[in-house]
């Protein structure tokens, strides 16, 4: 009986497990709360002299080798005067800059700077000359008209990026990357600044509201799986043809072998 | 509880038996069933590939019938009002809107649509594999030449069925496909423009084409396919099925389980397996997501726009043509960038179509053949096949040049140039390698027949000599390896008037090309002496 009693309450065999779980939930929750707090605090004042000074230091340490000490450009890299904060936020925020190596186009990689540092760099470059600014949240949160965005996307973007944003090939090793996990801010910035081989879609060409609709469509595609099942990369008939030859016909041939196998 | 014999029913017959008697008394079908039921069908997995094609065609017919209840082949413009949000309010044709309704608003519609499309892809793929089996085993030889022609025509009809179906939803992808066809038609000198206007009822895209393609897709082409499939199967029954060489199998018989009951049961079960595999694929994998492509509009073209796989070789041929192959002459534009692929593909198709007659003429072989060749025993034919497959595969791969470039981090130009080499030089390389591999395999077979397998057992003779014991073949295996026909190049002979015609010279030259490198099959004498001198 004593044994039975000892195994209830805080001496229950699962008490340790419960305690551990509780501890983990608290730690995780606190971490999540704190880290979201830090993101919120990463709001950098664009006009403060301190931001620009910090940005300048970062620029001179990390970018000046190719872009020049005052971003005037060298043989290795273009001038950044007048490219605006949006261009820097896109290039550095997606990890394309600092560039790993010269090639047909800068490859995406994990970002090398914190969000705060990216913003400091962006506002430093923006202070050198007027250019497109980082878009405000209401333009990039995907709250527009998906149908209009889809139509604009098919007409303006699908040639290179594919109708489902799966990406596509360009000439001489260049390519249009997939848009399946690009954030709304970066899509917007890409449209206004035309990074790598992409053309610029300025506000006269596609209005900010239309850009918001394009982002809304891409968010829709990102958030909604294909109603037909597994997408096979959304690559179109090539993926479908490969699938039916390898898996469809492969399965069928395996079955024919099984059906005609002689019993031993 | 006892069963007292009844006066009214002296013989108690089962329902099945009574029913068959009833039917037979009115149709005399017993003789037919008996005859057909006793047909033997040789058992080999590769003999079932044609059935896969047939069964997927049945699935295509059944699912297609369902789709006709809901699809509307009209190009009248409407504003989409279905449940797919990113297309709401977008202007599109009724054809596109009804296909979207099938996909989103009709119960089971998307599943059946996907099954129809997947089954169509499998249909053409199975035909392709079936034809390769026929080609490489020489099963197209006398008396089956006409059936080869029928089968190949079915392949072409299946491609036409596929392409017309691909074009029906009037989405961006199908419109782009039609635009390429329109361009190809317009590239033909003199008649091109007129033909295009005739086809589309005016300037592309017009308002006619979907209706016209629909008639082709659900009436004319299926009727032709069904009729030719029936004829194809009648010929299979008339000719008997081919079989691989083996003890007890000869040119005069067909060895295998009879159609009734064994083979029919197996084939019936196999139909449901094929149906099941297609249903599984259709329920799990998206195909042709027209909601992504949106309605057709002549201005946009998506990256990764390709035809379905079976038209890929034609698309690839267009992509491989170097730039600048068109010029103005006599005040007309001559589009050799379109004419050359059309002509090359035309020659390729006609050559495949009439290949049985070419080979029959070259070999001068007028005998019937019911034993399927092993591909190695006809090295030149196998090598020709390998060259053809390489040529086709190069064109086919070229249709996905952009996908190859992005997914293997290559340049588009590099992919195109490499595939140009594959298409032009590749067939010769493939021909040479395949022929040498066949001859080497024949040599190995000959060695095995004469000396048996190496057993790895080393024996020391009393005199001190070491020998390896070879394990002789059993009779069954040997039969398979020795029963092949041997050919020799044709001699040039003068005809009745004592003249040697130019045709004779060509034929002798081709025959020499076909048969000059050959390994003679093991003769009975060699076999016996081989056994005698065996260590």
Automatic annotation (TrEMBL), chain A:
EC number: 7.1.1.8
Class of the enzyme per the UniProt entry, highest EC level: translocase
Superkingdom of the organism of origin: Bacteria
Keyword field: Cell membrane, Electron transport, Heme, Iron, Membrane, Metal-binding, Repeat, Respiratory chain, Signal, Translocase, Transmembrane, Transmembrane helix, Transport
Binding site for heme c 1: 63, 66-67
GO cellular component, one term: plasma membrane
Residues of the signal peptide: 1-32
Quaternary context: The cytochrome bc1 complex is composed of a cytochrome b (QcrB), the Rieske iron-sulfur protein (QcrA) and a diheme cytochrome c (QcrC) subunit.
Name recorded for this polypeptide: Cytochrome bc1 complex cytochrome c subunit
Provenance organism: Agromyces fucosus
Automatic annotation (TrEMBL), chain B:
Membrane topology recorded in Swiss-Prot or TrEMBL: Multi-pass membrane protein
Reactions this protein catalyses: a quinol + 2 Fe(III)-[cytochrome c](out) = a quinone + 2 Fe(II)-[cytochrome c](out) + 2 H(+)(out)
Cofactor(s) in the UniProt record: heme
One GO molecular-function entry: metal ion binding
Record flagged with keyword Glycosyltransferase: no
Major place of residence: membrane
Residue ranges of domain Cytochrome b/b6 N-terminal region profile in the record: 19-245
Keywords annotated in UniProt: Cell membrane, Electron transport, Heme, Iron, Membrane, Metal-binding, Respiratory chain, Translocase, Transmembrane, Transmembrane helix, Transport
Uppermost EC category: translocase
Record-linked Pfam families: Cytochrom_B_N_2
Subcellular location: Cell membrane
Origin superkingdom: Bacteria
Transmembrane segments: 47-71, 118-136, 148-168, 214-238, 270-291, 338-362, 383-408, 414-434
Keyword RNA-binding: no
A GO-annotated cellular component: plasma membrane
EC number(s) reported in the record: 7.1.1.8
Any Gene Ontology biological process: respiratory electron transport chain
Matching PANTHER family: CYTOCHROME B
The protein, known as: Cytochrome bc1 complex cytochrome b subunit
């Amino acid at each position: 009986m004593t044994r039975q009693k000892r195994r209830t309450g805080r001496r229950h065999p699962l008490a340790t497990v419960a305690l551990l779980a509780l501890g983990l939930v608290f730690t995780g929750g606190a971490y999540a709360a704190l880290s979201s707090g830090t993101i919120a605090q990463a709001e950098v004042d664009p006009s403060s002299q301190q931001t620009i000074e910090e940005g300048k230091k970062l620029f001179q340490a990390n970018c000046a080798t190719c872009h020049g000490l005052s971003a005037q450009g060298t043989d290795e890299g273009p001038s950044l005067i007048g490219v605006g904060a949006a261009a820097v936020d896109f290039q550095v925020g997606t990890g394309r800059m600092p560039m790993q190596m010269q090639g047909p186009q800068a490859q995406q990689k994990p970002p090398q700077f914190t969000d705060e540092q990216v913003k400091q760099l962006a506002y430093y470059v923006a202070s050198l000359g007027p250019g497109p600014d980082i878009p405000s949240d209401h333009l990039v949160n995907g709250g527009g008209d998906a149908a209009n965005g889809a139509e604009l996307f098919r007409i303006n973007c699908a040639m290179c990026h594919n109708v489902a944003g799966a990406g596509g090939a360009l000439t001489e090793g260049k390519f249009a990357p997939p848009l399946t996990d690009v954030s709304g801010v970066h899509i917007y910035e890409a449209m206004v600044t035309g990074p790598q081989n992409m053309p610029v879609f300025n506000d006269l060409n596609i209005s900010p509201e239309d850009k918001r609709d394009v982002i809304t469509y891409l968010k829709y595609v990102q958030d909604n799986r294909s109603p037909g099942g597994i997408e096979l990369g959304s690559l179109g008939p090539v993926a479908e043809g490969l699938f039916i030859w390898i898996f469809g016909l492969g399965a069928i041939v395996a079955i024919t072998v099984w059906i005609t196998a002689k019993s031993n | 509880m006892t069963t007292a014999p009844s006066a009214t029913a002296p013989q108690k017959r089962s329902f099945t038996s009574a029913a068959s008697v009833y039917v037979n008394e009115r149709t005399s079908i017993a003789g037919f069933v008996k005859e057909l039921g006793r047909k033997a069908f040789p058992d080999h997995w590769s003999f079932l590939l044609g059935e896969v094609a047939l069964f997927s065609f049945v699935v295509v017919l059944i699912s297609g019938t369902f789709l006709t209840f809901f699809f509307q082949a009209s190009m009248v413009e409407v504003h989409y009002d279905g449940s797919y949000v990113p297309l709401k309010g977008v202007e599109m044709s009724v054809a596109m809107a009804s296909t979207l309704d099938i996909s989103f608003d009709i119960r089971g519609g998307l599943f059946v649509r996907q099954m129809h499309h997947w089954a169509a892809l499998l249909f053409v793929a199975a035909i392709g594999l079936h034809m390769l089996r026929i080609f490489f085993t020489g099963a197209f030889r006398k008396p089956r030449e006409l059936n080869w022609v029928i089968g190949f025509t079915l392949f072409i009809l299946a491609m036409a069925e596929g392409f017309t179906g691909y074009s029906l939803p009037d989405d961006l992808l199908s419109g782009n496909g039609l635009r390429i066809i329109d361009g190809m038609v317009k590239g033909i000198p003199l008649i091109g423009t007129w033909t295009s206007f005739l086809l589309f009822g005016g300037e592309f895209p017009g308002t006619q084409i979907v209706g016209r393609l629909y008639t082709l897709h659900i009436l004319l082409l299926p009727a032709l396919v069904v009729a030719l499939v029936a004829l194809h199967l009648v010929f299979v029954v008339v000719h008997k099925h081919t079989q691989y060489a083996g003890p007890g199998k000869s040119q005069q018989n067909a060895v295998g389980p009879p159609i009734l009951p064994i083979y029919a049961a197996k084939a019936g079960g196999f139909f449901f397996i094929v149906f099941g595999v297609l249903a599984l694929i259709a329920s799990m994998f998206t195909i042709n997501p027209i909601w992504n492509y949106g309605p057709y509009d002549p201005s946009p073209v998506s990256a990764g726009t390709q035809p379905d796989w079976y038209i890929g070789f034609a698309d690839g041929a267009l992509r491989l043509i170097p730039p600048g192959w068109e010029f103005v002459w006599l005040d007309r534009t001559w589009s050799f960038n379109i004419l050359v692929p059309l002509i090359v593909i035309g020659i390729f198709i006609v050559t495949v179509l009439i290949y049985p007659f070419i080979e029959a003429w070259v070999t001068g072989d007028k005998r019937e053949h019911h034993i399927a060749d092993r591909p190695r025993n006809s090295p030149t034919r196998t090598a020709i096949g390998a060259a053809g497959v390489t040529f086709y595969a190069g064109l086919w791969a070229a249709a996905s040049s952009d996908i190859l470039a992005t997914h293997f981090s290559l340049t588009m130009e590099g992919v195109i140039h490499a595939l140009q080499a594959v298409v032009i030089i590749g067939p010769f390389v493939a021909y040479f390698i395949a022929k040498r591999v066949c001859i080497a395999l024949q040599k190995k077979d000959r060695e095995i027949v004469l000396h048996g397998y190496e057993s790895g057992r080393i024996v020391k003779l009393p005199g001190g000599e070491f020998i390896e014991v070879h394990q002789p073949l059993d009779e069954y295996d040997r039969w398979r390896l020795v029963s092949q026909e041997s050919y020799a190049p044709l001699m040039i002979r003068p005809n009745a008037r004592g003249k040697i015609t130019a045709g004779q010279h060509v034929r002798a030259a081709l025959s020499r090309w076909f048969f000059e490198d050959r390994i003679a099959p093991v003769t009975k004498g060699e076999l016996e002496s081989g056994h005698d001198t065996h260590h």
